[in-house]
Amino acid sequence: MAIKIILIAAFFVVMLGVGVYCRKKATDVNGFVLGGRSVGPWLTAFAFGTSYFSAVIFVGYAGQFGWNFGLSSTWIGLGNAFIGSLLAWVVLGRRTRVMTHALDSKTMPDFFGLRFNSPALKIVASVIVFVFLIPYTASLFNGLSRLFTMAFPAVDYAWCVVVMAVLTGIYVIIGGYMATAVNDFIQGLIMLGGIVAVIVLVLGKSGGFTESITALANVSSSETANFPGAFASFFGPQPLSLLFVVLLTSLGTWGLPQMVGKFYAIKSESSITKGTIISTFFAIVVAGGCYFLGGFGRLFTTPEAVKANGYDSIIPSMLSSLDRDLMIGIVLVLVLSASMSTLSSLVLTSSSTITLDLIAPAVKKFDEKKKVVCMRVFVAFFIVVSAFIAIIQANPEFKISFIAQLMGVSWGALAGAFLAPFLYSLYWKKTTKASVWVSFVLGVGIMTANLVCTFTGTTFISPFFSSPINAGVLAMLVGLIVVPLVSLVTPKPKKEDMERIFSCYSAEVVVHAKSSLKEKE
After folding, report:
1. Inter-CA distances, 121 with 89, 126, 421, 433, Å
2. For 289-305, how does the pLDDT look when each residue is reduced to its tens digit (9 = 90+)?
3. Other Cβ atoms within 10 Å of 63 Cβ, number
4. Is a pLDDT exceeding 80 seen at residue 460?
5. What per-residue string of b and e applies to 429-453 under the rule 16 or more CB within 10 Å gives b?
C-alpha cells in the first residue's frame, strides 16, 4: 500500500509543479489555448498521442475488443497508429497549422465561422462540441473504478474521482495549454514504459509469448464453434466488425476538435516532420500494446465472469494476477496518466469553445484578461460536471446506463459532423457553406437516431448498424460523400474570398538548403 501511495503522490506533485512552472505562458488567450503557437515536436506529438489514448482505451476498449476479436484486435492499435496518427499528421498537420494561423482561428467552431464567414456555423458547431464532449469527458473516469477498487479496496471510488478532477483542474487552470502539453509528455513516457512492462509480465504468467499464443488458439466459444483457433487468427472471428472499429477509432480522430486542435499550436516545419514520426511511434507502442494485451483476455477470466461483471473487468483480472505491488502501482499511475492527459485536453477544448465562440461574440468589452478568466472558470465547470456524472453513473443505486451509450455516440457524432467539412475546407475552394450544414445535420442526426433506437429497443437501419461504432463509421462515410455532392449543386463561395483564404498556402518562405534545393544554380 505504501508503494502505491508514494508513486501516486509523486505523480501528482510533478503534475502540479508543471502547472505552476508554465503559468507565465497562460496570460493571454493565445498562450492559454495554444501555448503561443510555439510548441515543439516532442510536446505536440505526445500531446496528440496522450489525448488520443485514455483509460477508456486501456481498460474498456482493449478488454472488450480483445475479448471479441482475440489477437486480431491488435489491428485496431495499428490502424490508430497509421491512419489516426501518421496519415492525420501528413494530411491535416501542415495545412491546419497554416490556414488556422492565417485566419487567426483558435478552435474548430471558430475555423468554420471564419472559413465560411458564418457566425451561425460557429455557434452550432460550438453547441455540438459542448453537448458531445461532456459525456466523453465523464467516461474517462469509468476506467479507473475497477483498478482503484482492486488496488485500494477500502477507498471509495468517488474520492478517487474527486482527487483526480481537482488536481487536473489545478494544473490546467494555472498553466493552460503549455502545462497540459508538458504534463502530456511526462504522462506519455509513463504510458510507454508501463505498457511494455505490463505486456511482458502478463505474458510471462502464461509461460511467455509462444505459450500464450498456443493457449489462445485452443480457446473456444459458442460463437466460434466452426472456427478453431479463431482468437489467435490473423483477422479474428469477425473481420467486418473489426474493420469498422478500426475506421471509427482511427479515421474518427480527423474530426475530433481536441485532436485537430493540436495542429494549431505547431511551432515550425521541422516540428511537423519530427512530430509525425514521434506520434506514430507512440501510437504503435501504446495503442498497439493495449489491444495486443487485450487479445489475451480469455486466458485470465471466464465468459461467466465477463457476463456478470462486464468487459471492464477483463484488464483488471489480468493485472490482479501479477500480484506485485510495485507493478500495480505503476499501472495505476499509467491509467491516471492516460485519463488525466485526455481529460485536460477535453476540458481545455470545451472551455475555449464556449468562451471564444459563444460568449465572446455576445459580450462587449470582453478583453484578453476576461477571456482567460472565463476559460478558467469553464475548465472548472466542465471538470465538476464530468466528475459528478462519473460518480453518479458508477453508483449502483443511481446507475445511469445511457451515459455509457452516449459515450459511444459522442465520438461518432463529432467525427460524423466535423470530419468531412474540415478536411474538404483545407483542400477544396469549392466547399460550400450549405454542405457544412448538411454534414452537421447528418452526423448528429445519424448518431441521435441510433441512440433513440437503442433506448426504444428498435433496429436502426439493420442489426449491423445498430451498434454505435458501426453507425459512427456510417456517419463519417456519409459526410465524405455528401459534402462534395452538395457543394456541386449549391451556391459557390465568392472567388475573391477563396483566393484570399487559400493564398496562405502560396506564401513564400525561406528555408535552408538541407530542406530544399534551388531550381537553378
Report:
1. 26, 8, 12, 8
2. 989 988 888 888 888 88
3. 30
4. yes
5. eebbbebbbbbbebbbebbeebbeb
